[in-house]
Amino acid sequence: AADISTISEKTLNSILEKNRTYSTQGKVADYIPELGKMDGKAIAFSVVEKNGRVVNVGDVHKKFTMQSISKIIALMIAVNEKGESGVFDKMGYFGTDKPFNHFSNLETTGKPLNPMMNAGAILTTSLISGEGEKPFLKILEMVRYITKDQTIDYSKSVYESEKSTGHRNRGMFYLMKNNGLISGNEDQLDNYFKQCSIELTAEDLAKIGYFFANQCVRFDGDAKYKNEEVAKLVESQMLIAGMYEFSGEYARTVGLPSKSGVGGGITVSVPGRMGIGVFSPALDQHGNSSAGYHMILDLVKQYGLSLF
Ligand code: GLN
């Protein structure tokens, strides 16, 4: 396999063009009405490796909402504050055969399966300390820190759209409150909707992937949050549940910790080496970016990046 230091715009462009057709095969998420307005044909591919070297191709300036990718940031913050047991006493480390918005075993064991599916993610955000909007602001600040971009913000219209249609998420929230796992009010659910509505680019996702791939050290070398154990924990959850019920098959084909969002983004960590960010809003039946998955797969094959 080729050396990753040879990854160039040309490399990424040829992979992008080869897979552009997948962006017309999937379906843009429209269960959140505001997301349905996205341009299905948009596509971007980004890589960040050693010393913060960035390679970007496609619609590199196009912003989209991070959606479920925000769950890994929330997990990091909750674990930093509460310790690993303070979070995982309340949920499992399990993989899943169920879609991201499934109630899974909230009705049986009472606890969410993992922090990557909606139930566990909503609970994770509720564990971050602070009144009202404060927990969300911590997530936003962490995204700004990791990407080194203070202009990153959330989309009010996507947030409003999620809030007014997110009845399954509201149902999970109250079931967990009933089970004694959540103690706060609906502000905590709003924080989850807001974190999902944070807008960024594929390059930002590559920087997030890089961060977890490198023990929570930023792409420019800033080591303020360096923590090998937290990075391992987050990466292990990405590996077993980051692509939801597709995670097992994805581990076979791609073999790297990754996290998708229904906005069409996927962030990938190549442990100790680099971060990959892709964006293409047309989703497959699992809610993962269709062209995004295929671009990652081709890069991984070409450069021998699988862990296995
Ligand atoms: N905001 C979305 C939801 O809760 C996030 C889901 C996702 O990206 N898979 O439905």
Low-confidence stretches: none
The biggest beta sheet is recorded as:
5 strands, antiparallel
What Rg is obtained from the alpha carbons, in whole angstroms? 18 Å
Reading the helices and strands in chain order gives HEEEEHHHHHHEHHHEEEEH
What structural class do you assign from the helix and strand content? Answer: alpha+beta
Q: What's the mean pLDDT score?
A: 96
**What name does CATH use for the topology of the largest domain?**
Beta-lactamase
General shape: globular
Strand order of the largest sheet: 3-2-8-7-6
Q: Which ligands accompany this protein? A: glutamine
CATH architecture of the largest domain, by name, is 3-Layer(aba) Sandwich
Please, how many helices? 11
CATH class of the largest domain: Alpha Beta
3D structure, described in words:
There is one protein chain. With 308 residues, the protein is α+β, with helices and mostly antiparallel strands. It folds into two domains: 4-67 and 200-303, 3-Layer(aba) Sandwich (Beta-lactamase), CATH 3.40.710.10; 68-196, Beta-lactamase (3-Layer(aba) Sandwich). 43% of the residues lie in helices and 11% in strands. It has eleven helices and nine strands. The protein has helices at residues 9-19, 70-88, 118-126, 134-147, 156-165, 167-178, 187-196, 202-213, 228-241, 247-253, 290-303, and strands at 27-28, 44-49, 53-58, 64-65, 199-200, 258-260, 265-270, 274-279, 282-283. Strands 3-2-8-7-6 form a five-stranded antiparallel β-sheet. A hairpin with a 3-residue loop joins β7 (265-270) and β8. α2 crosses α4, α3 (118-126) crosses α6 and α3 packs across α7. It is globular and about 55 Å long. The model has no long low-confidence stretch (mean pLDDT 96). The chain binds glutamine.
